[in-house]
Design brief:
By secondary structure, the protein is mainly beta. The protein has two domains: 7-74, Roll (2,3-Dihydroxybiphenyl 1,2-Dioxygenase, domain 1), CATH 3.10.180.10; 93-152, Roll (2,3-Dihydroxybiphenyl 1,2-Dioxygenase, domain 1), CATH 3.10.180.10. The protein has helices at residues 15-26, 101-110, and strands spanning 7-11, 29-37, 51-58, 66-74, 93-97, 114-125, 131-140, 146-152. It has a four-stranded mixed β-sheet, covered by helices on one side. Helix 1 (15-26) packs antiparallel against helix 2 (101-110). The longest helix has 12 residues, at 15-26. The chain starts with 6 loop residues before the first strand and ends with a strand.
Amino acid sequence: MADIIKRTTLMVRDAERAASWYETVFGMTRWMDVPFTLSGTQLAAGQKGDQTRLVILKCEHDMIGMIGLLEWLDPKLDAPAELTTRLAFGAPIFVVASSDCKAAIERARALGSHIYCEPRDWTVTGADGAEKQMIGGSFFDLDGYFFEVNQQV
């Protein structure tokens, strides 16, 4: 069996606020919500003994496509005062297949997200060589992570 990437964990300012955003915008549900103390060995952030909270959310699948939200409780981790509205090297781009792209963007807007691209019609050639008609748009979540949301029409 080939390895799989089952989850991406994001460092967030407020795990509860971030979890609520993902639940509202993408309809994700909580799979796990636990406090834990860092060991200081495996994670390349924080220090041994830091108190954190990890919320893991899922969509339809119990193992792949999950999002982890990691908040430093004690000590609080410094976060940038202003979030970027441009991508840079090292920043992930999340691509979401949506059943209603326009509604997802409106939910994100209502929660205070920066909308980068309003929903638009476009065409893409898939891996099988066939053209697909899409509606797509993009935005940043409340911690500055970028999402491209697409709907096949």
